[in-house]
Automatic annotation (TrEMBL):
Pfam families attached to this UniProt entry: MazE_antitoxin (PF04014), PhoU (PF01895)
SUPFAM superfamilies linked: PhoU-like
Signal sequence range: none
Name under which the protein is recorded: PhoU domain-containing protein
Record InterPro entries: PhoU (IPR028366), PhoU-like_sf (IPR038078), PhoU_dom (IPR026022), SpoVT-AbrB_dom (IPR007159)
Native source organism of the sequence: Halomarina ordinaria
Residue ranges annotated for the SpoVT-AbrB domain, each copy included: 8-53
């Protein structure tokens, strides 16, 4: 760490010198322009960039299928605005995988293709992005998936179960968007200004979005089990419905706490959500006991459903923890 003494020039202007090593490493010289970003009692400084778009390239010669799609998602989440995928010859299968990956991501479009490369560009402006809107949408979709997955299980509705499985892509798309914005906020103070949230709050929202994405994954697991199971006994169905309602209520309260500006109300909601997690664990043990009397294969699959509902409640508890951190006094 280096320190500098603040000086006064012209009788009213405060000045401070920049460390020469930092200036040299970042191409700063006489006449260069730097940007300042106030963040509570801190002032962040960064060189003013010449390029509005961040470009990146990737050799995809040995990539195909899911591996290629993951590579595209990684470049997107890392914050590249223009992504050039290069190889000696882009195969038809690679083009299909690239297009499928782009369709799973918010704002990413194929803007150019040649025989040896495919160029994608993020068409969204950072000032148009809202982590708050994204996690609110994730909340609605993931919890509706959880409710519909259980309904599909109890009513033996394969069409509804398949619909839940397909909706998981919507949550994944929003999760990738939140991750992209979060990483951009960490890397570039200007993005934090555009988003309108501090980096600490973005961290809390990002970690909570991860919990919502996991809830959607467990809703998908329940929907897949629903496709394998037949009718569920009435008593087991009632207990599972209670468990799902409790897990949903915990997550709803936790999300309300996370988005609440009044710290006392946020603490009250978050603590209430955390306390209810223990109640869900007790209910889950009772449900497990009840389904042991069923057919072994049916009992095994329903046991997995109970596990998914319990984990969903735990993820809601994790969101409540993030809400408590967000509402806590700052040191």
């Amino acid at each position: 760490m280096e320190t500098r003494k603040v000086q006064v020039t012209g009788g009213s202007t405060y000045t401070v010198s920049l460390p020469k090593s930092w200036a040299t490493d970042n191409g700063i010289s006489a006449g260069s322009v730097v940007e300042f970003y106030p963040e509570e009692d801190s002032l962040l400084l960064t060189p003013k960039g010449d390029e509005e778009r961040t470009e990146g390239s990737l050799d995809i010669t040995n990539l195909e299928g899911e591996e290629l799609m993951r590579a595209v998602v990684t470049m997107y989440v890392s914050g590249f605005d223009i992504i050039t995928l290069e190889t000696g010859r882009v195969t038809a299968a690679q083009r299909r995988s690239i297009r499928e990956a782009a369709q799973r991501l918010v704002g990413l479009e194929v803007i150019g293709e040649t025989g040896d490369n495919v160029v994608l560009q993020d068409l969204l402006d950072s000032s148009e992005l809202s982590i708050t809107n994204a996690i609110t949408r994730m909340r609605l979709v993931s919890l509706s998936m959880l409710a519909d997955a259980l309904t599909a299980l109890i009513e033996d509705d394969d069409d509804l179960a398949q619909d839940v499985v397909e909706r998981d892509d919507d949550v994944d798309r929003l999760w990738a968007l939140v991750s992209r914005v979060f990483r951009s906020v960490l890397r570039d103070p200007g993005t934090a200004t555009d988003v309108g949230l501090s980096r600490e709050v973005c961290f809390d929202y990002h970690s909570s979005a991860r919990q919502l994405e996991r809830i959607a994954d467990h809703a998908t697991k329940i929907a897949i089990h629903a496709l394998e199971l037949g009718a569920v006994p009435e008593e087991a169905a009632e207990r599972l419905t209670t468990l799902q309602a409790d897990a949903t209520d915990i997550t709803e309260r936790a999300m309300d706490a996370l988005l609440e500006e009044d710290t006392s109300r946020a603490n009250r909601l978050a603590n209430d959500a955390r306390e209810r997690v223990d109640e869900v664990d007790q209910t889950a043990r009772e449900v497990d006991q009840a389904i042991r009397e069923l057919d072994p294969q049916q009992a095994q699959l329903l046991g997995l459903v109970v596990d998914s509902l319990t984990r969903s409640a735990d993820y809601g508890g994790n969101i409540a923890e993030a809400a408590l951190q967000k509402a806590a006094p700052k040191p």
